[in-house]
Amino acid sequence: MIDSVVNFALDNLSRLLVSEVTLLSSVKDQIRSLNDELKFMNIFIKSSEGKREDPFVKEVVNQIRNVAYQAEDVVDTYVVNVNNQRSRNMLGKFFHSKDHVMMFHEVSDQINSIKRRIDEIYQNKSKYGIQQGDFESHNGNKEFAKDSLIAKRRNVEEEEVVGLVHDSDEVINHLARRGDSSRRVVCILGMGGLGKTTLARKIYNNKKIKSMFPCHVWGFVSNHYRAQELLLSLLKLLGLSSEEYKDLNDKEKMKRKVRECMSGKKYLVILDDIWNIQVWDELQEAFPDENNGSRILITTRIEDISHYTRAIFTYELPFLDESKSWELFCKKVFGKEKCPHELELPGKEMANACKGLPLAIIVLAGMVAKKERSPREWLKIKNNVSWYLVQEEEYRIVTNILKLSYDDLPQTLKPCFLYLGVYPEDYEINVRRLCQLWIAEGFIQKKEVGPSNSPEVEDIADMYLDKLVERSLVQVASRRTDGGVKTCRVHDLLRDLCISESRENKFMEVCTNLDAIKCNSRRMSLQYRGELRLTEDNQSSARSLLLFGENTYWENESEGWKQIKNGFKLARVLDMNQVRLCLSPRGLTTLIHLRFLKVTASSRTIGDEVLASICNLWNLETLYLWIKHSITLPNKIWKLKSLRHVYLNCDDIFRELTQIESIMQRMKMEEATKIFKGWSGGASMSKMKIGETKVENLQTLHNICLNARTASVLKKGMFPNLTKLTLRGEVTELPEAPEKEFLENSLQCLNKLRTLKLLGIAILPLDRNAYPTSLTKITISFGQLDARIIKTLGQLANLQILKLGGRGIYGDVDCVAGDFPQLRVLQCGADMVDGRWKVEKGAMPQIRYCNIPHIRD
Question: Where is the Disease resistance protein winged helix domain (predicted)?
Answer without folding.
Answer: 422-498
